[in-house]
Design a protein that fits this description.
Two copies of one chain form a homodimer.
Chain A (H helix, E strand, L loop, with lengths): L7 E7 L8 E6 L2 E5 L15 E4 L2 H5 L4 E5 L5 H4 L2 H7 L4 E3 L1 H13 L8 E3 L5 E4 L2 E8 L6 E8 L2 E5 L17 H10 L3 E5 L12 H14 L4 E4 L5 H14 L2 E5 L1 H12 L10 E2 L12 E5 L9 H6 L13 E4 L8 H13 L3 E3 L16 H11 L3 E5 L3 H13 L14 E6 L2 E7 L4 E5 L2 E2 L4 H13 L1 E9 L4 E11 L7 H21 L5 H20 L4 E8 L1
Chain lengths: 557, 557
């Protein structure tokens, strides 16, 4: 399973057929460069799992070849895996100033900051790793300081776009460097890896400036305090909120740990300008005229423990939402979060608040950071790649991105729709997808990384749906009979009603089965346990249509 | 807790601040009439629960006053609770011919059909219950044979809209009877109860005819077989699929139990016309030219066991989706189902199918059956009610519906935004909301109705997130010491890695705690168990950040 040692190879350990846990790799001979190291949040089928990160066992096996981890930008799905990665692989991390600030917050939390090697880069940086030269170009997205990457290899140039849109009127001068992109395309691009999040959406992404205009308008209309929730990392949107506070003479309070932390990083590093004296503590809110207050908070995705959720249920200590306060959702719900967000909107309306929300950009308070179809076609047109790998998306997004690529001139057959672990090898400017390396999910549960597997998850599923029964039976092998028990307790199973009768019958069946086995001289524990599980399981299913976990515990005296 | 015996009262046992389990009631003196009896599907926090139905204990206490259960239409959120209701309350059920067909399917399944009293009505029926006279008006929705209801009481007229939209070009002549509605409004409406599902959406609902046009166009374009998924109960859409098959010379196969059952009811009762010989069995599909085949199937909401999901993973016995087959989603995902639907779309694209889908009506293959803001305003305008109760919706929908009502002339203060269990009493044409009756959720889990409560759900949650440990300790009170064990087994907790060491340490701590207790002559089981749980729980949390359920079982010999 050692890495191939000649030629140029490209593969992903995360980010293909999924949104999340992005991790791509370029290998030229004995040099591997990793791009991004994200995490992903589990869906409800992964009971009890906190996070998913890429399985990096292939990289661990090849650790002497890894030269660098380059991060395109500071979103969780691109940096969230770094602490777990760096615990196993002490590789230098290259990222821009703002991105590094967010990575440092993470590493501090995991007590890893001191031993990590973090290298600040900017769009003009040039790096060399063996025969690979690396340079960068600035892209626009929904977080400051984003990079696209060019890998100049002896086989040809490979471009990785990072996450991007083309915003011709961005907030905070976060322009895409279209001129440099055009130059790169002119030099010649052998292979393009481009993100696919919005490949299903026609048109061009609306500009971030639109949000600023709507925010200012709403702040002017508001007769009492305004509460706005957005992603903390969207510093350019935060800047527009600050600007609206300036215009409407409001002080600004920050609620939620990540909002406070990220805004601090942004201010310290010069990505956010807040007038002196504008920021106030949450305990100053009450004393002020509501018309002079704004609150910026976390929780736009309906996260139950975040500030907005607690405000909506009246359980945020010291801050209340009152009638005629205005609440603005300046972020659309990510698929899967719709119900949680709706619950919060309902609660806020019930408090008498004026709530401004809407799907997608329909309220004018949110625009996507990911390019729509025309943005993606513009990138493809600028780069004019010979080969194309759509990345960062579920299958249907990669599929649509291939159609877009072909519509602007990428030859049929030159696009590779890949899975995590699939490898494209390039020799003599010819690309082929033939082999695989190991890729997969590593689950983080509590402090455990990778210690929860399929069996544990299957047990949790059974326990979660129908609960369990534990029965203790004491037998005497010498006498060949049950001497005490069964004593049965249940958890997560029926409760009250007829359940006493049910448990009595379970004990009766268990006694009968056990005595029959003992009379037949069957004392192998496995056989006994399985017979008991079977007879009791059948009885319970017939009477309740439920399948609780049944754990007979046999004690021999 | 007995019902109030004078005047007119209105309340809901389900359907307010939720989508689902609709159940409303009108009481005049000693006569109660129930409207609808729906169910609701649980969200993922209700582990293992199959269905939610209204808690009808108030009705059971007042069962001698209940005169009728009237059903507005045959959707699950209006009929899904009937078998459970009729098991407790043998009340005559009034519904139209098609709705009764669907109710009969349910009652057959629950072996309740013979003892139930089902009465067929139509939009021209007149019923009398004590001092309440009831008549009806036809409304258009996404299922045939829908009713709005007028209750003529001595206090005044109360109108319940059922679910509706205004479709001026419906499929199958399912027109709303606007003329009769206008007459009812002219007679005078004291109180209107109107559905609120789409009260947030501006404009007028698009017509069902649009779907028919898009379906026909797609069927003409398709070069191989077409697979279309929609709600089985949307018989007017099914008719349009049948019509498209006729035009394109395709045979039609039905996949999925509810599709087969509902289509059969519709054909038998004259709501669907299918040309002789058009329907084929699924095992005939393979032998036919793919261009002459269409499939109509269940599963448009991503339900994992439904036909479409199984087709998308190649696990539907005997029917395959092949390259260039066309798959049409003729239903938008209901909030909460987006991720399941996306997964199926991804799988279908990966099989090479051409997939037509889209959010809302963007693909032209789906329109809502619930009126948008202009539809709702038209109903309010026709009825000109003095009082208004928005029903059938989450809080923000009821809130917006109130604003719509006020915009067309309902006086401020005359709209009641209520919760399930709130009662509006009307005397001398004055309505007041002052009292409450008991309302709530009843959980159906397997065959158990109402036997799963909060404790069981809390246990399931803990078990689902962190699993459990069961430890058996045998003690001798005589000797005052532990004589065997602890033996600890875990389920749904860590597995492999360091877990052997962890369990060893758990046993060590348990032994120490038990012996200390016994030395101190503490032999109360509760005290012992709690001390063990506490010491072990602390150790496990410190080392894993997990909180499994800990069940010490102490055996005394």
């Amino acid at each position: 399973m050692s890495a191939k040692n000649n030629g140029l190879s490209i593969f992903a350990l995360g980010g293909l057929n999924e949104i999340g846990k992005n991790m791509y790799a370029i290998q030229y001979e004995n040099d591997i460069i990793i791009i991004d190291c994200g995490n992903k949040f589990p869906d409800e089928s992964l009971l009890g799992i906190d996070l998913i990160i890429p399985d990096i066992s292939y990289l661990v096996e090849n650790k002497d070849k890894i030269r660098a981890l380059i991060i395109t930008h500071g979103h969780e799905d691109h940096i969230g895996g770094t602490p777990f990665f760096l615990k196993k692989l002490n590789v230098p991390v290259y990222a821009t100033r703002f991105t590094l600030g967010l990575i440092e917050l993470k590493l501090k939390e995991h007590k890893l900051l001191r031993e990590s090697e973090l290298v600040e880069i900017n769009p003009d940086s040039n790096l060399t790793f063996g025969d690979i030269k690396v340079d960068f170009f600035k892209v626009n997205h929904s977080i400051p300081d984003c990079l696209g990457i060019v890998f100049n290899t002896p086989e040809g140039n490979i471009v990785h776009t990072g996450d991007f849109k083309f915003d011709l009127t961005p907030a905070n001068d976060e322009y895409s460097d279209i001129h440099k992109m055009a130059e790169i395309g002119k030099r010649g691009v052998l292979l393009l890896l481009s993100e696919s999040t919005n490949a299903e959406r026609p048109g061009l992404t609306p500009s971030e400036q639109m949000v600023g205009e709507h925010v200012e308008e709403a702040f002017k209309k508001a007769t009492r305090k305004v509460i706005l929730s957005t992603f903390a990392s969207n510093i350019n949107r935060v800047q527009q909120v600050v600007d609206a506070c300036k215009v409407t003479n409001r002080k600004l309070a920050l609620l939620g740990r990540s909002m406070v932390n990220v805004v601090q990083v942004a201010m310290e590093r010069g990505y956010l300008e807040v007038p002196d004296g504008m920021l106030i503590d949450q305990d100053e809110i009450d004393a002020m005229d509501p018309q002079n207050v704004a609150i910026l908070c976390t929780g736009s995705q309906g996260e139950p423990m975040a500030a907005l959720s607690r405000l909506s249920t009246g359980s945020f200590r010291g801050v209340e939402v009152l009638a005629d306060d205005m609440v603005i959702f300046a972020a659309g719900p990510i698929p899967g979060n719709e119900k949680g967000v709706s619950k919060i909107i309902d609660n806020l309306f019930a408090l008498g608040a004026k709530v401004i929300y809407g799907s997608g950009s329909s309220s004018g308070m949110h625009v996507s950071g990911h390019g729509y179809q025309e943005d993606l076609k513009l990138m493809l047109t600028l780069m004019r790649p010979k080969y194309f790998i759509p990345i960062h998306g579920e299958y249907r997004m990669l599929y649509h991105h291939r159609m877009l690529a072909e519509s602007v001139g990428v030859e049929q057959g030159n696009t590779f729709i890949m899975k995590n672990g699939d490898v494209v090898d390039i020799e003599n400017e010819v690309a082929r997808q033939t082999r695989k390396i190991h890729a997969g999910n590593t689950y983080v549960d509590g402090v455990g990384v990778g210690d929860v597997g399929e069996i544990v998850l299957r047990d949790r599923k059974q326990l979660s749906e129908d609960g369990m029964l534990v029965s203790v039976l004491t037998i005497s092998k010498a006498e060949g009979k049950l001497v005490s028990g069964p004593d049965t307790i249940s958890r997560g199973f029926v409760y009250g009603g007829d359940s006493d009768d049910l448990i009595k019958n379970v004990n009766r069946i268990m006694t009968k089965t056990t005595n029959e086995l003992l009379e037949a001289n069957e004392t192998k524990w496995n056989v006994m346990k399985n017979s008991i599980k079977k007879s009791v399981g059948q009885y319970i299913f017939q009477n309740t249509r439920k399948k609780p976990m049944i754990l007979p515990i046999i004690i021999e005296i």
